[in-house]
């Protein structure tokens, strides 16, 4: 009977969908959609979506051969499960009518009601509301997918689906609302997050650390990566898609999008080279793995800052993020924390570095949304706000995720049996293998 529950729920949703809102048209005379902005956001949405398959290759190439399919599927399934939740009530929780600055009303856009016609989101008045909803969906998809690298090679697939569902509802969507909704608690406090350093990377990073601590180590914590070529392909797809992630967050085909495009390119390039140079100093040979990890760390760090800082300062952000994350990877390796693919040192720490440096280098001349300039320009207000927010978000994301992991484990045990871990999750969870 337990096996029937998921399909019964899906059938029930389909029935409810037939009875739900479907033809409510809204045409406003005061709205003028822009075809260029709409075309760019459509393109950006597709670019952000391809990041999740890119992440699948990135992670899949790093694990052992017996766990490649399982690891890749954990990313891929987010595109399916989170899309359903987002359409039913997820978008409403993130961007619906404000409730206390921490969550949206799930009834506001229930089943995507009110999306027909030329209705728009107040922050993006030149693109259709449904397009904004689909653009934001792609962010909601990749956030839980990022966590999977921390507990790769040791979780049950069915239990994992329960966890990402809970994480999305109780961690990601409240953070998205608090940060990106005009009435959100962090937005009103003055926190700047251009494209998700706080919402996506910090939340995923702290959840990754909580997962690694709770699930403890693998039976065999070291392995040879299955396919370095997958890692390179994944990095290329991530970097390509990240232009939609960051430049798309400008909301249209405009100069700010071009600026974010440039800062994204520069920060990632600098971080990749920095990672290689640090490895050489440590006596290692320059590696494809190091270059790829460095590039992704640079992308992570520039994400909150892309549309707020200058191109020259993006060099500083890329360099700093690579040095700090590289150090945290080294320190983590000296502990018993088995964060399989170093999600916390790279995404969590990278996101925090980006958040702090946004408050250092942000300037009003780049983006008028910057009401108080960064610390580098002699103003302290934004920096203090970001430090306080960093601590608050970290506590919420870490302990909230830890609670959800424990709850998931009670509903459906997360850890696979030891013999299944030895055989590999591809065979034991999916009956497939390379």
Automatic annotation (TrEMBL):
GO terms for molecular function: ammonium channel activity. Keywords: Ammonia transport, Membrane, Transmembrane, Transmembrane helix, Transport. The chain crosses the membrane at residues 38-60, 72-95, 129-152, 159-180, 192-215, 227-245, 257-278, 290-309, 315-331, 343-363, 383-405. Its main location: membrane. One of its GO terms (cellular component) is plasma membrane. Gene3D superfamilies: Ammonium transporter AmtB like domains. InterPro entries: Ammonium/urea_transptr (IPR029020), Ammonium_transpt (IPR001905), Ammonium_transpt_CS (IPR018047), NH4_transpt_AmtB-like_dom (IPR024041). It is found in: Cell membrane; Membrane. Pfam families: Ammonium_transp. Residues 39-432 form the Ammonium transporter AmtB-like domain. It is a multi-pass membrane protein. Belongs to the ammonia transporter channel (TC 1.A.11.2) family. This is Ammonium transporter.
């Amino acid at each position: 009977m337990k096996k029937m529950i998921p399909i019964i729920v899906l059938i029930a949703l389909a029935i409810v969908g037939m009875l739900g809102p479907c033809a409510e048209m809204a045409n406003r005379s005061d709205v003028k959609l822009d075809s260029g902005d709409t075309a760019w956001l459509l393109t950006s949405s597709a670019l952000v979506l391809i990041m999740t398959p890119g992440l699948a290759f990135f992670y899949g190439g790093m694990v052992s051969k017996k766990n490649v399919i399982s690891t890749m599927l954990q990313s891929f399934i987010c595109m399916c499960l989170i899309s359903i939740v987002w359409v039913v009530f997820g978008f409403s929780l993130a961007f619906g009518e404000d409730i206390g600055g921490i969550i949206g009303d799930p009834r506001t856009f229930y089943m995507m009601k009110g999306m027909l016609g030329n209705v728009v989101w107040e922050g993006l008045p030149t693109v259709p509301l449904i397009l904004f909803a689909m653009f934001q969906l792609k962010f909601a998809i990749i956030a839980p997918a990022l966590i999977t690298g921390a507990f790769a090679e040791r979780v049950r697939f069915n239990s994992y689906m329960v966890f990402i569902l809970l994480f999305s509802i109780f961690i990601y969507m409240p953070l998205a609302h608090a940060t990106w909704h005009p009435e959100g608690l962090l937005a009103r406090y003055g926190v700047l997050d251009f494209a998700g350093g706080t919402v996506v990377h910090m939340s995923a990073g702290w959840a990754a650390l909580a997962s690694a601590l709770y699930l403890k180590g693998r039976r065999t914590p070291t392995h040879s990566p299955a396919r370095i070529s997958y890692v390179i392909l994944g990095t290329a797809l991530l970097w390509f898609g990240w232009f939609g992630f960051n430049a798309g967050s400008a909301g249209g085909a405009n100069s700010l999008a071009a600026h974010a495009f440039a800062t994204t390119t520069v920060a990632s390039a600098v971080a990749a080279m920095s990672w290689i140079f640090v490895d050489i100093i440590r006596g290692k040979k320059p590696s494809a793995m190091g270059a790829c990890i460095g590039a992704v760390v640079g992308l992570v760090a520039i994400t909150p800052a892309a549309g707020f800082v200058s191109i020259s300062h993006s060099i500083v952000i890329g360099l700093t993020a690579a040095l700090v994350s590289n150090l945290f990877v080294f320190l983590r390796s000296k502990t018993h924390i088995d964060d399989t693919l170093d999600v916390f040192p790279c995404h969590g720490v990278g996101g925090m570095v980006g958040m702090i440096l946004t408050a250092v280098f942000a300037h009003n001349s780049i983006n008028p949304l910057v009401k108080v300039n960064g610390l580098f320009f002699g103003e302290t207000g934004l920096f203090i706000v970001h430090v306080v927010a960093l601590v608050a978000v970290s506590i919420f994301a870490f302990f909230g995720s830890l609670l959800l992991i424990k709850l998931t484990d009670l509903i459906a045990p997360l850890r696979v049996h030891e013999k299944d871990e030895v055989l590999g999750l591809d065979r034991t969870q999916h009956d497939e293998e390379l």
